Amino acid sequence: MTIMALQDMEPEEAADIVLEYKLKDTVSAGIRKNIINDLLDNDSPWEEYSDIRFHKNLFARSVLLHKAFPSQF
Predict the structure, then answer these.
(1) Are 12 and 40 in contact (CB under 8 A)?
(2) What distance separates the 2 farthest-apart alpha carbons in the chain?
(3) For residues 22 and 6, what is the distance between their CA atoms, to the nearest angstrom?
(4) Per residue in 13-48, is it b (16+ CB within 10 Å) or e — as a string?
(5) Residue 11: Cβ within 10 Å count
(6) What mean pLDDT comes out for the span 4-25?
(7) pTM confidence score
(8) E-assigned strand segments in the chain
(9) Residues of the chain with pLDDT > 70: what percent?
């Protein structure tokens, strides 16, 4: 159900909602936007950010987004 709900949105909007929900107040909207751009460019943001607390969450969210949008994430 989650994947179908995400597929009803634009990829950028879905990614922002997923990241905002999981990362909450730990990152700003600008950093979320940079992470989304990295994901869309097929980069690995969990390798780019030095704070290890985010690596697991970023990887898990990118897998979810890839399942919803396989050709874009």
Answers:
(1) yes
(2) 33
(3) 15
(4) ebbbebbeeebeeebeeeebeebbebbeeeeebbee
(5) 18
(6) 89
(7) 0.78
(8) none
(9) 100
